[in-house]
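re the bet — no i am not wrong, look at it urself. input seq straight from the record:
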Amino acid sequence: QVQVVESGGGLVQPGGSLRLSCAGSGFIFSSYVVSWYRQAPGNQRTFVARITSGGVTKYADSVKGRFTIFRDHAKDTVYLQMNSLKPDDTAIYYCNADWKLSDAPGAYWGQGTQVTVSS
């Protein structure tokens, strides 16, 4: 059974940090391109960052220099380290896994984890 599970969301003050985790099972997670997307209320789901199986990364302009995506193959987990958080970063963050490198999301989604940046 394919599963993608996010964790690590929460409430943080502006300027603070959070680390999100995405764990995959039921497929060869280490071979997949893993991306983070986010969706704020009333907005479309948008791309945040992605990492290939080989560790090549790509970021949305809005998070460059503040967010870092990395993966631990031994744990079948991808992380999103978020620093210098802003209220505009408030959203539900979703993890996505795709067997191929593409600008469109793949078939496997997690359930999402809420990130709220507020004082």
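see?? The mean pLDDT is 96. told u. also The longest strand covers residues 18-25. so pay up
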